[in-house]
Amino acid sequence: MLTPENLQKVEALFKRYPTKKAVMLSALWIAQEQEGWISEEMMRYIGDLLEVPYATVLGVVTFYTMYNDKKIGKYHIEVCTNVSCMLRGSGKILDTVEKHCGVKLGETSDDGKFTVSEVECMGACGGAPMLAIGEEYYENLTPEKTEQLLSRLK
Amino acid sequence: MEKYILPDIPDYHKLEVYEQHGGYQALRKVLQMKPDEVIEEVKKSSLRGRGGACFPTGLKWSFMPKGNDRPKYLCVNGDESEPGTFKDRMIFEFNPHQMIEGILIGCYAMGITTAYLYIRGEYRKWIKMVDAALADAYAKGYVGENILGSGFSTNIYTHSGAGAYICGEESALMNSIEGDRGYPRVKPPFPAAKGVFGMPTTINNVETMTNVPLIINKGAEWYSKIGVAKHPGPILVGISGHVNKPGVYEVPTGVPLLTLINDPQYGGGVPNGKKIKAVIPGGSSTMVLRGENLEGVCMDADSLKAAGSSVGTAGLIVMDEDTDMIKVIKRISHFYHHESCGQCTPCREGTGWMEKMLTRFEKGEAREEDIEILLDVANNIEGNTICALGDAAAWPVQSFIKRFREEFENKVERKETAAA
After folding, report:
1. Out of A22, A88, A132, whose CB is closest to B177?
2. Predicted ipTM?
3. Taking CB atoms and an 8 Å limit, are B84 and A87 in contact across chains?
4. Per-residue b/e over B128-155, b at no fewer than 16 CB within 10 Å?
5. What CA–CA distance (Å, rounded) separates B198 from B211?
6. Chain A neighbors of B175, CB-CB under 8 A
């Protein structure tokens, strides 16, 4: 369920489109910001809200990589390993992240603090290598800078 | 050269600063013109799309049906997910109002009352910046109902993606706006006949729209004299990989790649004085070029075509002499495998097989015949899919084999070595 405030946010978007379904991606973003992930219950709720079947919502959630259909850690560390980052040492950044967080790619630490993911090009090639935590980009990284950044996360 | 897309003016992203430098004057001018005159002016400028296909913008606009018997839409493509491309993000951050003004001019020219600005989900922070700029433009009466008292109304809405490269493909982008999975559509029907919500639609890239106010303010003739005649104007070049100064640089079209890589005001040369082994000139989909063949090759559509590649998104990726080309092409193939939407068998299966085979090359376990098999897989994807992602996955593999075949041969398992 969305909070009344978030429900209002979704409803305010209806006027932007000729169909309710078109609010799908935005509604899922609002849901994910509220809960940190998107549960089956939430997908059914959004389906009802947008007047589309649950299967349609599930299809969208599983298509787009940024929607989490499982709970993730408090900090989602997304390391770009695509060409421009790879050429400038993203491998060492990923090693540093995995070591610090004590997990491998795609895993969440036991204490629920970190989830580490590989991401495709984030559009920050001029600041390669980079990683993102939430909506923040951290660019021109070195293993030392990465270590400092991660140790600041409480 | 003076800069027109990313000018060196502090706080240019703020509405009042943009206005102080002539911002929204092009919109005022356009509102006094007939829509067809605007399209003619853009046609005369020879502006070509900056999203990768270099399609003439004015011609694209002229495909839209006239009249207002049904809604028409403009979708502005800010999905920017092509590896090596990071230019539109600069516009969102440093010059959003010029983009908004360009969108408004396009809407007026084509009689469109709703524009969706599709921005990739990873750019959440930049979506907020654009939303803030839009709110200011609405408050000043540049966007919304009865713009500047002209009787013309149009709304611009940002629409966030959620992590899918394929949504940069125009028909997938429209499905994504409709709230669906980002599956490309079969063409025809083309968007101008049946686009988003089944209505006539035009899709233009963010950088393309940011060029439009210049054409109106300074005239098509002025614009068409910047850079090379057949592909004129300022262009944002993203330089990444093995250069001393990676970043986005605004240049006129037609600047030599070697200047972009080596000149201190651009890439600043390859670190440690190393030689250039290869460049990918326009984002990962474009064909790789050998470093020794770059003499005379320039950043514009015709020059790069003649060199056996394309301008793409002008995302120039530089690789020095120590680069393992197999590792690079394997990473590129991993990307296309991950991003294939799965609709068409040649792409869904082929991208997976290419990645698997390249993994074998990377490990030095490939067989002699694997080079031809890999090429065969790539050739069977190209041209056999609904959208261009299939081609985009095939071209890098084909060109890496064509231009760096020795690196593949070096990775073939040597039976005699293995036996010894």
Report:
1. A22
2. 0.98
3. no
4. ebbeebbebbeeeebbeeebeeeebebb
5. 28
6. none
- Confidence at residue B414, expressed as pLDDT on a 0 to 100 scale: 72
- CATH of residue A57: 1.10.10.1590
Residue A68 lies inside a defined structural domain of this protein: no
* Domain co-membership, A43 together with A8: yes
Rounded Cα distance between B46 and B59, Å, is: 9
Residues A50 and A88 in one domain: no
Contact B335/A22, CB-based, under 8 Å? no
Best residue in B134, B240, B316, B400 for a mutation probing chain A (most A CBs within 10 Å) = B240
Residue A135 maps to which CATH number?
A: 3.40.30.10
**Rounded mean pLDDT of A113-121?**
97
Does A128 map to a domain? yes
**Facing B242 at nearest CB: one of A87, A132, A135:** A87
Pick from A68, A60, A151, A56: which is nearest to A113 by CA?
Answer: A151
Angle subtended at Cα B52 by Cα B49 and Cα B54, rounded to the nearest 5 degrees: 40
Q: Is residue A15 domain-resident?
A: yes
Q: Domain range spanning residue A80?
A: 75-151
Residue type, position B134, single letter: L
Of B88, B122, B160, the CB nearest to A26: B160
What are the pLDDT digits (tens) for A15-53? 999 999 999 999 999 999 999 999 999 999 999 999 999
Asked if A43 and A109 sit in the same domain, the reply is no
The residues near B74 (Cβ < 8 Å, ≥ 6 apart) are: B103, B106, B107, B110, B112, B114, B115, B116, B201, B202, B203, B204
Tell me what pLDDT residue B415 has: 55
Alpha-carbon distance A152 to nearest alpha carbon in chain B (angstroms): 21
